[in-house]
Amino acid sequence: MGEAPLTFVRTGRGRLLHDLRRHGHDTWCLRRLGVCASTETELSQWLVQHPRCGLHSRAVLADHQIRAHGQYGRRWMASRGGVWLSAALPWPQQQCSTGLFGLTVALALAEQVESTGLQVSIKWPNDLLIDSRKLAGVLPTLVFRGSRVRLARIGVGLNVSNPVPPGAVSLRERLSSGRCRLRVWQGAVLRALDRARELALDPCMVVCGAEQRLWAESVADPGTGEAWQVRGIGMDGRLLLEQGTRRTSWTRWTDSPDQDL
User: Fold this and answer.
1) Which domains does the chain have, with CATH numbers?
2) Second label for 83, Cα 20 to 30 Å away, from 109, 153, 160, 216?
């Protein structure tokens, strides 16, 4: 039997935009879907079909993804109850690394969660943790024209009321049900992305804020098992490590070449 066709339902966008505008965030173009394969794919198609959006940011939100894109191209299912979105932003810092961009978004998102009183740590390079359990992840991509950033793209997944696998945590485990309304957290993530654009103008603040929230003081090399002490974060988003007199750094993100978007 063939696979059932996907259904695309746009609901609740008006209320979300109203909430954003009420908080002074009126530069968003939104598409909200009931079910889709991947918000990343939907966003790519939107950018190809309508490449110009002025100074507005765009986001595709889905209640449920069946083939979501993760780190290193991994596919996973994003269940109902979480915030799943992909966004494209005009980025104010024209000379930027993908690693620093991802940390900027992670820091802004951490600030939003911390406004509830929860303590958040950043697991370099792309996860937010509460008590060593994964709460959220970001997937950053920069599109360049020459040496200048043309577009910043970010995928965000935040566990709110959705079921989570072992090793993860949702907000409903730590907050009252009244503080876990999905639309509220969708708006919070979009406001965090606006905040990230502000933070991008002060890379030193981003590095300092991310360093204060680092999840561990030491890490193990996945290839050799060697233990390295975490020294901090470089201005390009690299994780700085040392082992006695030896020093090294890690980076995982690669920048995207210019695309006709």
Assistant:
1) 13-215 (3.30.930.10), 219-250 (no CATH)
2) 216
